[in-house]
């Protein structure tokens, strides 16, 4: 019985540790997903669509795995911190962060999609 338990613990430990090398790739791909959402937001230039693109970028990045989720969180928090210096009020920052968390936690980005946004986005 002890042998079975030891083997089970070893397998779980090795499997968990074997995934560490994917983290940098996931982070890079996640950062690229965030950049693509930003570029699409600028390209769309559509009123009231920023929350959708926040959610979509975070969602796509988080789907890459722990590295992508980490990259999405770091990029989102850094962006909001930098923009916080330029804003006089933080009313939009809280809504942006809510959309960021929604996407990172697997929520459908279309929840924030404005009516009339072209299908290409």
From TrEMBL:
Keywords: Acute phase, HDL. One of its GO terms (biological process) is acute-phase response. GO terms for cellular component: high-density lipoprotein particle. InterPro entries: Serum_amyloid_A, Synovial_Prolif_Regulator. It comes from the Eukaryota. Belongs to the SAA family. Major acute phase reactant. Apolipoprotein of the HDL complex. This is Serum amyloid A protein.
